[in-house]
Design the sequence.
């Protein structure tokens, strides 16, 4: 039993974290958004503010709310939160703590004739998430404003599939008045969600790889994050089993802290020589200090 839990530890952490951060169950029943004090606090993953069960706020949504406001132009709290989370964890958040990442992981487990790690043009298309971050999360909310100087949360409003799945569908299902008011925008976002969910059956985490602006932010910190991987070059035999096991298709033996790494740990489990390991920062510092003494 213990071995089974340990083997599926990441899945259990994903499920528990998603349940805890979206634990306002009565919200799904009543179709109402939780507005308690915890909503002022950001959670690490793409966790929609408007989800009826959400107890915290999405950092991307929070950042856009400030940038698009006519009264505020910068949020030290949200930017500080993103930087601190990035420095501590990097894209570990994507692999372990993001609810929409969990959804894609589960869908990818659905049997299909052939599975693919990437889509055609993968290396170039991975940069699309940085374009979305700069354009839809920052520039458009700041400068595409109405007559009174108020902008819109462009990414949340026009793209975010997590918001559609976790907020849009439950709210519309529970509120007859909302069902009467839905129009093109709702169907547009439902189309994006449907395409991504269908693609997730065949391709591993297409949203994380190509579109997610939150993943783009955390990826910047991957090489310097406290939680990262070490590669022992003396142990590595360059068998490339790590890359074969990696659903993000990273040459771990070359770059264990690649910007696309979500820290799932598959490479560590498959390495025949134990060349890849999670960095034990405190242990390394203690060992160095002991030698110097």
Sequence:
């Amino acid at each position: 039993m213990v071995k089974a839990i340990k083997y599926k530890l990441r899945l259990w952490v994903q499920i528990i974290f998603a349940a805890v951060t979206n634990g306002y169950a009565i919200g799904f029943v009543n179709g109402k958004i939780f507005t308690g004090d915890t909503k002022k606090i950001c959670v690490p993953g793409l966790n929609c503010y408007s989800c009826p069960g959400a107890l915290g706020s999405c950092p991307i949504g929070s950042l856009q709310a400030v940038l698009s406001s006519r009264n505020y132009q910068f949020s030290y709290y949200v930017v500080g939160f993103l930087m601190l989370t990035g420095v501590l964890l990097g894209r570990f958040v994507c692999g372990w703590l993001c609810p929409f990442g969990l959804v894609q992981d589960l869908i990818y487990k659905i049997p299909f004739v052939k599975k693919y790690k990437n889509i055609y043009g993968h290396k170039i298309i991975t940069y699309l998430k940085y374009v979305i971050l700069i354009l839809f999360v920052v520039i458009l909310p700041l400068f595409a404003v109405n007559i009174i100087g108020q902008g819109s949360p462009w990414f949340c409003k026009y793209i975010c599939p997590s918001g559609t799945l976790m907020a849009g569908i439950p709210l519309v299902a529970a509120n007859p008045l909302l069902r009467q008011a839905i129009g093109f925008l709702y169907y547009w976002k439902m189309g994006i969600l449907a395409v991504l969910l269908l693609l997730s059956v065949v391709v591993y985490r297409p949203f994380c790889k190509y579109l997610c602006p939150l993943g783009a932010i955390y990826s910047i910190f991957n090489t310097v994050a406290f939680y990262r991987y070490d590669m022992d070059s003396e142990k590595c035999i360059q068998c490339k089993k790590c890359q074969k096991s990696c659903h993000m298709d990273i040459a771990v033996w070359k770059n264990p802290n690649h910007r696309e790494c979500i820290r799932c740990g598959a490479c560590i489990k498959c390495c025949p020589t134990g060349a890849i390991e999670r960095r034990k920062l405190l242990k390394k510092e203690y060992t160095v200090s002991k030698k110097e003494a």
Observations:
- The longest strand covers residues 229-231.
- The mean pLDDT is 91.
